[in-house]
Design goal:
This is PIGH acetylglucosaminyltransferase. By secondary structure, the chain is an alpha+beta fold. Helix content is about 35%, strand content about 40%.
């Protein structure tokens, strides 16, 4: 009977590990910004599964570095601010990026500058009808 309990515990642990690797453990995060199309955010899990989110550039109001206080330390993270379709001055949603990898501030600043360059090109480019 003890071996049956031990076998069940090992089996449940293995199933839990597989679920963790497939749905929770993010191995890599990437951001692709194309000024004329939008922003693609991809998360690669440890199991090889990928999750991709695409945000149309027309929805993007701005990209900012935000800060939060967590466990007595300041954490910086990159956010995409989406504009409200009904109110052009309003914000409908804030989408945080790189939540699993938590890059350092100097890395976030580089990504932020690149995103701002692309957003500025989009604003200064003539709008085609």
């Amino acid at each position: 009977q003890n071996s049956m309990v031990l076998s069940a515990a090992i089996f449940i642990t293995l199933i839990g590990l597989i679920i963790y690797l497939h749905f929770v453990k993010i191995d890599q995060e990437s951001l692709l910004v194309i000024g004329s199309l939008g922003i693609q955010v991809t998360s690669s899990y440890a199991s090889g599964k990928e999750s991709t989110t695409f945000i149309e550039m027309g929805q993007v109001k701005d990209v900012v570095i935000n800060e939060a206080i967590h466990m007595q330390k300041v954490i910086y993270y990159l956010c995409i601010i989406l504009q409200d379709p009904e109110d052009p001055q309003g914000v409908s949603e804030v989408v945080p990026l790189f939540q699993s990898s938590k890059p350092r501030l100097d890395c976030l600043i580089e990504v932020y500058k690149s995103c701002q360059e692309i957003l500025e090109q989009r604003k200064t480019a003539p709008q085609s009808s």
